[in-house]
Amino acid sequence: KLTYAKPNMVVLSQHVALDNHLSVIPTCKPVPVPVVDLTDPEAKTLIVKACEEFGFFKVVNHGVRPDLMTRLEQEAVGFFALPQSLKNQAGPPEPYGYGSKRIGPNGDVGWIEYILLNANPQLTSPKTSAIFRQTPQIFREAVEEYMKEVKKVTCKVLEMVTEGLGIEPRDTLSKMVRDEKSDSCLRMNHYPTAEEEVEKMVKVGFGEHTDPQIISVLRSNNTAGLQICMKDGSWVAVPPDHSSFFVNVGDALQVMTNGRFKSVKHRVLADTRRSRVSMIYFGGPPLSQKIAPLPCLVPKQEDWLYKEFTWSQYKSSAYKSKLGDYRLGLFEKQPLLTHRSNV
């Protein structure tokens, strides 16, 4: 096993303006996050309620071994501690691979470096292969085992959603993630501690956004920073919990429930004292999957709030947008007269 140095922040060969991620943001008070015990007989009801009210909830008794979560975190920290020249061989992301500060191709930046991996073992990319070449075999093994276990949690939660909403069959949503052509992915983010000259400023690690996929399942270390936006527009801090998962409703699920579930806007602020490491599994459908309000929930098409589209179309549209754009606006059947912004 390799011995890693202390994690350091990436240094880019080309200058990246980071002014827009250094700002004074009012502090947020923690809010009681809905907690769902997956072994609770009422879990499906609690999940539906949380998806309607918050678009976000915490999952406990999820069945994923703590040592597996810890091992992947340690291996991710090890990768981010590698010399910059080695990490650069796995980037820039296209969209998979290693990235730093730049988030996407449209000018968004953050106090972050990250790895994005396709969760489909049948699909590989040169950038992904480069990541595994720079790390011990245990890293690849930890990634594969972690994705397998978190995929089970993702599918279990989606099946509880269908049960709670009275949707038949039970696997209406989960089969999209289980499909062999599922477009799911795993993202590992590293938010370093502050540099001295900006220590007193608030650092936006990952700016305000929603997740495009069906749902996202997040696990992080015990460093604070995650915040979600409430319905009234206020931001609330999510207390960290390294032993639990946090689930976000994604844009695709908002469409399939015809707006009953809300894709939650969230962001991450970097901590000035401790680095933050998070691992997010994005449960996505196959590229050819049609996304539209589910007929069992909305029988009449004239009641649909959204046009039908394929996941490939939406993914392509989202990739061309800026991080904080309201991406679903392009797919609303009757866009609201008032400006709906996700920034």
From TrEMBL:
<dbReference type="Pfam" id="PF14226">
    <property type="entry name" value="DIOX_N"/>
</dbReference>
<feature type="domain" description="Fe2OG dioxygenase">
    <location>
        <begin position="181"/>
        <end position="285"/>
    </location>
</feature>
<keyword id="KW-0479">Metal-binding</keyword>
<dbReference type="InterPro" id="IPR044861">
    <property type="entry name" value="IPNS-like_FE2OG_OXY"/>
</dbReference>
<comment type="similarity">
    <text>Belongs to the iron/ascorbate-dependent oxidoreductase family.</text>
</comment>
<dbReference type="Pfam" id="PF03171">
    <property type="entry name" value="2OG-FeII_Oxy"/>
</dbReference>
<protein>
    <recommendedName>
        <fullName>Fe2OG dioxygenase domain-containing protein</fullName>
    </recommendedName>
</protein>
<keyword id="KW-0408">Iron</keyword>
<dbReference type="InterPro" id="IPR026992">
    <property type="entry name" value="DIOX_N"/>
</dbReference>
<keyword id="KW-0560">Oxidoreductase</keyword>
<dbReference type="InterPro" id="IPR005123">
    <property type="entry name" value="Oxoglu/Fe-dep_dioxygenase_dom"/>
</dbReference>
<dbReference type="InterPro" id="IPR027443">
    <property type="entry name" value="IPNS-like_sf"/>
</dbReference>
<dbReference type="InterPro" id="IPR050231">
    <property type="entry name" value="Iron_ascorbate_oxido_reductase"/>
</dbReference>
